[in-house]
User: What shape does this take?
Amino acid sequence: MAKTALCSDDSFSSYSFFIEALDLFSSSLPSIEKSPVECACKWVLRHQHKLKQAARSCSLKVKEALGLEDRHFDQVETDSEVTFRYRDLETQLTEPDRLRSKPEVSDLGFGKFFTDHMLKIYYHSQLGGWQRPMLVPFENISLHPAAKVLHYAIELFEGLKAYRGVDEKIRIFRPELNMRRMNKSAVTAGLPTFDGHELIKCLNRLVQVDQEWVPHGEGSSLYLRPSLIGIDGTLGVVQSDSALLYTILCPVGNYFKNNSSISLLADPAFIRSWPGGCGDQKMGSNYGPTIRVQRIANGKGRHQVLWLYGPDHQLTEAGTMNIFLFHIDENGEKVLATPPLNGLILPGIIRQSIIEMCAEWKEFRVEERVITMNDVIKLKNTDRLLEVFGSGTACIISPVSAIEYQDAVIDIPTTEHSYPVYKKIKENLEAIQYGHIKHPWAQPIE
Ligand SMILES: Cc1ncc(COP(=O)(O)O)c(C=O)c1O
Assistant: This one.
């Protein structure tokens, strides 16, 4: 194939690939039995991401030759193998007569009602990777009965919230941390990763389209549930070559029914997470097996399970929350302690925010350390256990008033102080989320 003077730089790898590929393609045509058009289509689909690179290279060359500037070239173009892009988002709005009616805030509960739209982004390695994001009316998804998510739980999810502020602006709390965690889970699940900033932009758009669903009134919010599932319709226990990243939204009220304190069952017979496992990832496979244990706890009149680990009965998490103890140490100093991120614990975004916020206050020491049930008993018996509380996006903070352990109940005076630390933390986090305090953790979406 002849090369023009404009394209004489053979060191330009994408361009060289393009030329070589075209040569290879044209020379392979006669040996292929299928129709040339079918062949060509398959070839283009298989190599589309490289062709895109080549097209970019050519366009840059042409612009260089014509003396045109292309300053934003590197910023706007990415490879579909690496990520999808917000700028490719296609939007299909729900017909006005099909919009759902919105429930009363008092009826919301958690995860019962869904908004009018959702986000869908397919990944097909055979088609070059990520496809264009689609914002579509809320709908059922159709899956092959052999889809890997249905058989081997090849999936992960996230949970984040959008809040309607006192200034009517909508803010999403620290979404970049959810994106980081989501990509980590994707690596563990063998699912494709992506540029978190691109998903944040798509999510912002989704929330904007459904903004009427962001409830008015503090204590309520719009919960965003991005999920990434393996959808290959093949039964092998291998990586899924196709995936679907989708996001649904639901307006939510208080996670726990009357928003009062909760009690926990701590039984070392049940283990949620172990070293070398995936307990520190937000994968559905971590949650299904907890349902039976949760029912056992409920049967004993306890709200949640306090998950223990190891022969020394280390505290790890409370239900689907990280756990904190506020206590007085041997020297009479106040300490806020939480178990360390040692692979057994989900790195909660509220957990991280509490640690960072309290470290800044400098009112008490903040420690990430192993806490055993013996430590809890010792603190209780010496009147140095002040508060225990759980943290998570769904509930923000949930005070704990009792732990049932080895047929005894440890009562905890969490809610009995005049201004407990858990309350101060909750108020400060909510002040940021609802825009009372301007803070980089909760920026208004454009
Ligand atoms: C097991 C587990 N631990 C902790 C958390 C809290 O994490 P975050 O603060 O990011 O909501 C969650 C919530 O999703 C969870 O599922």
